[in-house]
Amino acid sequence: MFSLTRRRVTGLMAGVALVAGLGAAQAQEDDIVIGGSIPLTGVFAFAGVAIEAGMQDYIKQVNEAGGIGGRNLRLAYEDTGYKVDQSVAVFNKLTSQDEIHLYYGDSTGFAKTIAPELNRMGGMIMGGASFASELNDPEEHPYMFMAGPDYSEMIAILMEYIAEETPGARIVLVNSDTEFGRDPIESSRAKAAELGLEIVEEIITPPTAVDVSTEVLKLRRARPDYTIFHGYILAPLPEFMTQAQQLGLETKFMGTFWSMDSSIWDSVGEPADGFMGVMPYRYYYDEEAGAPTMAKIREMRPEYQATGYMQGYLSAMLMAESARRVLEAGQELTGTNLKAAMNTIEDFDTGGLIGIPISIPGNSVPVGRVYQYSAAEKKMQPVSDWITVKE
Amino acid sequence: MIIGTAKETYRADAALLTTQPQRVWMAIFLAALLVLPFVLDAYWLYLVCLAMINVGAATGLNILTGYTGLVSLGQAAFMAVGAYTVAWLEREAGTPMLVNLAAAGGVAAAVGVLVGIPSLRVKGLYLAIATIAASFILHFVFVHWVPVTGGASGISVPPASFFGIELVTYFRLYWVILPVTALMVLGAANLFRTRIGRAFIAVRDRDISAEVLGIPLLRYKLMSFGIASFYAGVSGGLWAYFFRVVTPESFPLLASIFLLAAIIVGGMGTILGGIIGAIFMTLAPEMLRFVVEWVSPWVPNAGTLLSPLRTVVFGAMIVGFLVFEPQGIAEIVARVRRYFRLWPFRT
Questions:
Q1: DSSP A289
Q2: At the N or C end, where does chain A have fewer CB atoms within 10 A?
Q3: Pick from A144, A124, A121, A147: nearest CA to A134
Q4: Are strands A276-279 and A367-374 parallel, antiparallel or unpaired?
């Protein structure tokens, strides 16, 4: 009788695996592939999952409308755990499997590491989760773009709002001790001088700081009108805000893109009330008229989507639009052509994702709006118009 | 079947490869290494190069921790020193690549000797903490010594050039990384045939007895730190040429833990263990990714669902090794060799 020894079972399993592997779905040859190094695990996982969802939803919409020039869009992505060497490994793997002209990178570190390779290959343009000011240089990084303002532009938007509300205000900058955190400090000083605002203190904390009592004391000594955080996601902002309230400080707190997702503030409650910041997109629950994209998103996804979703959605939108323009002009999909096509995007209507029509003259979309968090409604309310930063 | 290897000269006794099958396997391995870059695509070449860089650093750590018994969690910081040295030299001086690598090793060795000075007074766990402290101090230096290290945004390294050929593809980089790593591993293997190597082992086994036997402890411990840091520095330099950007966040504490895990999994105290451990730890995440890919026809969105599992499996593997095979993969290899020594007769 054919007895199932362990050896035979292993052999059978290996055989099945081989057959199954061969039968795996064959990719369409003429798909336009968007490659993605996406952080699905690790510290940035909440953003990565949302970004992937946003990109997939936009791609689905494009394909349902007939694709680009008859070709389907496809997202080929893998997890990177927000580690640079894994991102590079994924990049190498995806580019060796498919012909990729559009790429989404997961971090500033990855973007900087892959930049020389990108410039050498010249076959693709790259967007990503990084809004680093260093990448916003069309000469150094001709194939990079970002679906929003860079960090310096974000702080500039906040400062323009402050200069209008409280001319000559006193500001404290609180940054995390990472490349991400230290990114906009220099240009913030310049912009403050230009707008007549006074930076009274610059505080640097470790990125994963828990005890910030010494920094709050510095804040008390400085007595600023506004405190701008950058380089953090959530922690240690609630700590700062709670302790400052206890000390009776009257300063208003502000943050940048990655601190501005409203769902992360929901669990903080009362201390989060009044927190302001800059966001280039509309929020999921924004029901203002004239925003068909937001209505479409709510239709596709009944549950709340974080701001990373909008970032991914817009990145896919810009990539698809550039590819469409290149193909309509009868050109080849190369990095130079795609970037040139992207730079022809002028007064482009995003369907309300960003409130005003956008142009991309360089590497970024320097538009944003200041929002304020309302703890009672658990929502971010807009408190300013759409501000465009001019170079 | 090998019944015994009778050696008739001292030279034969001290040889690295003693049996004929060993020599044959080594020849096949070297031939495979030479053929590899012609058959692999960019993705696999990238992994092989990265694995070799880790082999160099892990071998250094093996000399320090596996053979001399000085637990160090600062190996990644020494790699960073080497990487920054190479980056700075490439940017400021136009010195050739090999000179830069040697300088990287030298500077890292000097820093390593400095870090090793407490090792006479503190041992074991406390030395590990001292090396962690050293890595934090070095991180602070990298972030704040802006004119040299470029601060938080780091240094972009221009590509290495060898006699005018720019090393921009993984294929070309392979032909630099391979000989450098091979030389380092050969050097490490040779080290333990000499008096210095035996002194290291004596320090590991019982350092007080070693001192009684006449081995000056501080000198040999510092030598061990210096050699291990030299290896880390050269590997860090290769890393800088490979990734072409060096930032303070390129070599976090986790990287030191990665290297320590590599030598534990591979087998502390054996050269083969360092090599196998580094290759295993570098390729393991990729293997797990293949599992995710293999499952994806049946499980849609497998990437998002299974990726968190990857980190768990990774840690479980390390713990599994420590529980079931504490002497590492090298011991499994040794067991296989012992089995074949009397094959086809059962032992």
A1: S
A2: N
A3: A144
A4: antiparallel
Nearest to A180 by CA among A145, A156, A206, A158: A206
Q: For A309-361, what is each residue's pLDDT tens digit? A: 999 999 999 999 999 999 999 888 898 999 999 999 888 888 888 888 998 88
Q: Does B43 touch chain A (CB under 8 A)?
A: yes
Task: Quote the pLDDT of residue B197.
Answer: 95
Q: Which residue, A87, A27, A33, A83, is CA-closest to A59? A: A33
**Are the Cβ atoms of A23 and B297 closer than 8 angstroms?**
yes
The pLDDT, as a whole number, for residue A193 is: 92
Instruction: Report yes or no: B152 at the A interface, CB cutoff 8 Å.
Output: yes
For the domain made up of B41-341, give the CATH fold: ABC transporter involved in vitamin B12 uptake, BtuC (1.10.3470)
In the predicted model, is pLDDT for residue A121 greater than 90? no
What residue ranges do the domains of chain B occupy? 41-341
Give which of B304, B306, B314 to mutate to test A binding, by max A Cβ within 10 Å.
Answer: B304
Residues 6+ apart with CB under 8 A from B127: B70, B71, B72, B118, B119
Give yes or no for B153 touching A (CB within 8 A): yes
Domains of chain A: 32-149+290-360 (3.40.50.2300), 151-279+369-388 (3.40.50.2300)
Nearest CA in chain B to A116: B244
How far is residue A283's CA from residue B124's CA, in Å, rounded to a whole number? 54
- What is the ipTM score, two decimals? 0.71
Grouping H, G, I as helix, E, B as strand and the rest as coil, residue A306 is coil
C-alpha distances (whole Å) from A141 to each of A268, A341, A360, B279 are 39, 16, 15, 34
pLDDT in tens, B244-271: 888 888 899 989 999 999 999 999 989 9
Please tell me the distance from the alpha carbon of residue A33 to that of residue A218, in angstroms, as a whole number. Answer: 50
Beta carbons of A113 and B243 less than 8 Å apart: yes
H-type alpha helices, chain A? 6-22, 45-64, 84-97, 108-121, 151-165, 179-182, 185-195, 213-222, 237-246, 262-266, 292-300, 307-328, 335-343
Q: Kindly state the helix (H) or strand (E) to which residue B212 belongs, with its residue range.
A: helix B207-212
Burial class (CB in 10 A: 0-12, 13-18, 19+), A326: buried
